[in-house]
Specification:
mainly alpha
Amino acid sequence: MTTADTAVLVLRAVAGLTMVAHGYHHVLGGGGLAGTSRWFASMGLRPPRVHALLSGAGELACGLGLLAGLLTPLCAAFVVGTMTVAGVAVHRPNGFFVFKDGYEYVLLLAVVSVVIGLLGPGRVSVDHALGIDDALDGGVGAALAGGVGILGAALLLALCWRPGTTRSETETETETEETEMETT
């Protein structure tokens, strides 16, 4: 194993496990899915329960995908997209520094994910075992990770982000959505 293979394995493992932890927390931790739904509603993401569920499930799946090196640039794109949405919807108004709830942390995860796409999954990956690693690294991998991630985030924000909704509106919407989910 080369130094580059070791480096990308470490990056994939740390970013992947971080996303698994995020996904677990969104679905099962703290206030669970209901709490995450309320938090997403307070950010202005509509419909909040759908976003909470898809975000948690996507973070779990793509975190595990990064860890295994499976469809690496697409998993990295999900991280870029998620971090872009978080950066725009939550952290941007607070400035750069994470200790002020700024975008420092989400920017770092997004850039690491693009770098993973650029470097490729490395030899210790499912992509390498499948023989698709060479097709998914370099400029193609970086373009997939960065381009698809940012495009997906822009689309999600344009279609589903409604900042400035009052608290009572978000609570009513979340409660209605939860009731509908329980009856199906």
